[in-house]
Amino acid sequence: MMQRWLSILAMVFSFGFLAAAQTPAQAAGFQEGFAYTRLPIPQPVSPSDKVVVTEFFWYDCPHCAEFEPMFEAWAKKLPANVVVERVPVAFAPQFVPQQRLYYALKALGKVDALQGAIFNAIHNQHIALGTPDQMANWLAQHGVAKKAFLDAYNSFTVAAQAKQATQMVTDYQITGVPTLAVQGKYTTSAALPQANNNQKVLEVVDYLIKQESKK
Q: Does position 1 have pLDDT exceeding 70, yes or no?
């Protein structure tokens, strides 16, 4: 009987040792290189006293359109120490107008109200929103004055923000969207084997947020 208890205790001790030897990421099933990647050069984030989650997206991307409702619902439940930043990508010059669309709406305080509607218009209603005139006409139907939009769209500030966004795509080594970055250190997307669907991507981001919050 004593020998049996000693065997059980040995097994418990062995299991505890192995569990302790695992990193938190391994315990969660998320491993660097499989669930997320570490940027070779960490990027600055603002505000510096928050955990910053950055979504890289493109309005014409069907995967971004599919991800948007889930991402928006998830973002509404984040703790107070986490902020979300969106960055529209421009992998080619023809992407730039939609970069400016986002930053013009941000300048007008209309992103939260219209982000989902834009994806819906493009991907479900098949409305072309690739030029400033197309954007202005559509936005006028949603309560945004054409002149106010076009003034913002053509402003120096929006042009500078679009240029900065393109630089961030390079700095973060973004090659596809949607991609999420955490605290300027890590990126994850459904292209990785352990984050191979939208729900998994958000679980990985939740894990990385917890790790950064501890710091």
A: no
